Amino acid sequence: MKSEKKMERRALSPEEAATMYGLNVGTLANLRHARRGPKFFKIGKKVVYFIEDIEAWIRQSPVLTRDSLDISAGGM
Question: How many CA atoms lie within 13 A of 26 on its CB side?
Fold first, then answer.
């Protein structure tokens, strides 16, 4: 559990974030330029992301499928 917490708080470079989440480094750069996408931090010229910020951004726009809806609760 302790190493899990440590990994969550580790800062990722754009290259590491892109690899970890299947994104393109250029896409992340374009999103930063447009002030969109996951929250990022600048340390001098270095850009870093935190895992929890990337995952929060990913979870903002789910695509609901028929299987993800609870039909028994009157979802459809």
Answer: 0
Amino acid code (one letter) for 73: A
- Give the separation between CA 76 and CA 72, rounded to whole angstroms: 9
**For the chain, what is the domain count?**
1
- For residue 5, give both structure tokens: 């917490």
Order the strands of the 41-43 sheet from edge to edge. 11-12, 46-50, 41-43
For the cut 60, the answer to whether the pLDDT of residue 3 exceeds it is no
Extract the tokens encoding 9.
Answer: 């708080």
Residue ranges making up the domain that contains 24: 2-59
Which pTM does this prediction carry? 0.74
Asked if the structure places residue 64 within a domain, the reply is no
